[in-house]
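Hi team,

As requested, here is the filled-out complex form for the adenosine-5'-diphosphate run. I kept the field names the same as last time so the parser does not choke. Let me know if anything looks off before we queue the next batch.

— J.
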Amino acid sequence: MFNKILIANRGEIACRVIKTAKTMGISTVAIFSEQDAMALHVAMADEAVCIGPAPASESYLNTDNIVAIAKQTGSDAVHPGYGFLSEKSEFAAAIESAGIIFIGPSKDAISAMGDKIRSKKIAEDAGVSTVPGYLGVVEGITEAIKIAEDIGYPLMIKASAGGGGKGMRIAHNSAELSEGFQLAANEALASFGDGRIFLEKYIEKPRHIEIQILGDKYGNVIHLGERECSIQRRHQKIIEEAPSAFLDSDTRGEMGAQAVALAKAVKYSSAGTVEFIVDEKSNFYFLEMNTRLQVEHPVTEFVTGIDLVEQMIRIASGEKISLGQEDVRCDGWAIEARVYAEDPSRNFLPSTGRLNQYKEPVTSDSIRIDSGVIEGSEISIFYDPLISKLIAFGSSREVALEKLKKALSVYLIRGIAHNIPFLTAVISNKRFAEADFSTDFLAEEFLEGFAPEKAIGSRMGIFIAAAAFVRAKIDSRVNPVASNSYIIQSADLESEKIPVEVEVSWDSCNAIVNVGGSFLPLESDWSPGSAILQANINGVDHNFVLKENEIGLSLTSGIYRADLIILTPSQSRLYGYMPANEEPDLTRYLLAPMPGLLVRLSVDVGDVVKDGDELAVVEAMKMENVLRSERDGTIAKVNFLPGDHLEVDQVILEYDE
Ligand code: ADP
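And here is what came back:
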């Protein structure tokens, strides 16, 4: 077994690998960019070495530096995590030629599976079901149209070198094919330096289901069942689960057997994933093989009880897999939600900044959190916006879902925008609860993104009771004989602002809240200072995330939110005389919504634009964000050029009025 391993990654996955190494008694070396000097993975590792400046191309992607540090620290092996260099066969080769072991498959297996045309051919030869299509490079548009007649529309135009959804387009007819072919080829050339394109049938309303496999260096391969990852936004997975509610045991068995056959065909050793799409009639088709640990691996670990990182390390060190296929048992249900620094109400714009308050739900046998941050950590523009993964386990899908919902409701993140209410909305959706979905689910149900819904009616009564309780607790600390009478109203300009008279009276530690004549008993051990209120109100458990605003409290509970103004009766009498705050008029400006690189300016001075037109593209956190006009107008001034770095709220351009 190894004495020391280097983890060529950052964030949650670096922390994840370090945890298992620790339990195996292996020392760990972290690498970090200048940006990450204070990062959690650096603190967790036994040693840590700075690898270079913040941009990944100068740090986490610098093979020469990583190999040099691995040698200099006496590391026996390198774990690449996912992303960065994990699927670069040149990286695996460079590690091995330095006499160090790469914790992953052979460089040959990585390169065979890294090219979509090549991997599809290998899969077909191994008897794996592939998407019907043309298995060669399509040379030009005329040839594409001819091939399309054989395959039939709709079809998928794909880049052989593709990944992350890039260079992929759907065509419903020959006109769309002509246009899409060129666009996909250009995008693939720009992103991967390789414009080879192939065509396959577009499978309508598919589900994405993948098989986890494990192979060793002696030709033994087993599979650990499936994960379903159909909840995707722009081909990026957001919620994953194991098992899949869709598969019957025959289909599951066949998919497992084919995944094993493919792994054997490329002499696969290590953990890997064979991805399939499955149509409405349970026909399944090979998509690609990921030759690394997947982001969503924890759901498999929960249902099988097998530590995949431990297996990867043991296999790399030359051990045989100690399990036979019959030893793999899948029990219960696990669901993972990816917590991102992004704003679902603003087209999922990535958010950067400091986590000035950060408190994770309590972990247990059924709640796991894989994160790479702590309170005070910074989410920067340089890396991807994943904050953590929250994984819940239960005896059934319903139980796991309930646990996930509860854990999300006590997860506190402050300082940046995040997607927790959105995740709650997705898992609370009726179709999701019934497992009635395909990869189109988010586009069908959440096309406009998501903003918390306003609490109204009796729900508003519950929010008001919670707010009054919090305020009364705070006031009673200052003045134990205070009356605890309040006038509460919504601060939201759009809702009716009818003030409600509220009175809190105490019954030992608990309270009775009189909300406009309705008496609501409230039990809670909340104390001032905590940003989470867990309360039983009128017999029902509720969790609220609290935030003080100027003259009251904002409360979020699940997918609902209320912004409340809380006044004492005497303040209330004077409140009407307060001048209203005038919001500055910013509609003349396009502001940078986040720090980043201006990659494209789509308009010039004098251009007339319409609501919805593209104005500029800003790159941050590995993603291109299109900034669109929110009005009609004429561009009067342009303050930055492509290539410029933007700070948040800098004025990129101005309209004439
Ligand atoms: P990438 O390597 O860019 O991630 P994949 O081939 O893994 O691309 O596909 C990503 C996603 O695109 C899949 O999960 C599925 O949602 C969709 N997809 C890919 N190929 C097809 C197809 N032939 N028909 C329908 N959807 C597809």
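Two things worth flagging: The chain is about 25% helix and 35% strand. The domain at 106-130+207-324 is CATH 3.30.470.20 (D-amino Acid Aminotransferase; Chain A, domain 1).

Thanks,
J.
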